[in-house]
Amino acid sequence: MTDPMIVSGTSSDIESLRGQLIAGSLQVQQQTIPQLANLGNNGFDVLMEFLMERRDTPATWVDGKAYQVLYNSDSPQIKEFLQTHFPQGIVPLKSDCGIDYSSLQHLLATQDFQAADRMTLQKLCEIAGAEAVKRKWLYFTEVENFPVADLQTINKLWLVHSEGKFGYSVQREIWLSLGKNWDNLWVKIGWKKGNNWTRYPQEFTWDLSAPKGHLPLSNQLRGVRVIASIFAHPAWG
After folding, report:
1. Within its chain, how far is the Cα of 235 from the centroid?
2. What is the SS3 string spanning 71-107?
3. 126 in Cβ contact with 96 (< 8 Å)
4. Of 143, 63, 56, 68, nearest to 109 (Cα)?
5. Burial of 223 from C-beta contacts in 10 A (0-12 / 13-18 / 19+)
């Protein structure tokens, strides 16, 4: 049942939710964002104000959640606001090799995780060069030469637009917490059940109900060496 207080959207309700969004715990912020979205224009105004006040600080997944609500709105005013103030999203799309990450940003902002996963591999191949683009997979030795900026951009996009659940840094932290045990990692992040590998794509979970670290797939079907090179990269320094 919908809370009538939230639907009514009086100024006191708005102020209460604004306070929770600015000063609440992560859990409170997470719950407050959809409540504001349900209030329509008044709630959207608070979310836009929230992003503007935080745009000079590195984006967190809370910013990502607020941005996604606005990004997926049909309002012309909101679209104009985002185009004016956040034309490339809330994660700086830095690249040391001239690669455009806006397509990946769009897929993650719309929560199309399966397409974003495919796009991630495509972008990794672009970083590696023409030969990798042609073959559509990576050698682990190519990963070693990836620029820090590019790997960090890809990781940050995943992190910010998944409530902190997905990304190479998340997978790496889990792997380290498991004493660098690969077999335990595959099970923990849902890439293996017992002795059986999770089948691509139908057995993977392409939404936020997935286990932490489930995505991106890091080209896992080619064995451990590519993901080991990603985890060993100086990007996580």
Report:
1. 17
2. HCCCCHHHHHHHHHHCCCCCCCCCCCCCCCCHHHHHH
3. no
4. 68
5. exposed
Residue 23 CA to residue 9 CA, distance in Å, equals 20
Q: Are 108 and 158 in contact (CB under 8 A)?
A: yes
- Model confidence band, residue 174 (pLDDT cutoffs 50, 70, 90): very high
Beta strands (DSSP E) in the chain are 192-193, 196-197
CA-to-CA distance for 222 and 147, rounded, in angstroms? 22
CB neighbours of 70 closer than 8 A, spacing ≥ 6?
Answer: 44, 47, 48, 51, 78, 81, 82
Write out the two tokens for 61.
């997944």
Q: How far apart are alpha carbons 201 and 199 in whole angstroms?
A: 6
Q: Which tokens go with 129?
A: 């060069």
Helix orientation angle between 11-23 and 26-37, rounded to the nearest 10 degrees: 150
User: What global pTM score does this model have?
Assistant: 0.94
pLDDT confidence of residue 220: 55
Q: The tokens 């049942």 sit on which residue?
A: 1
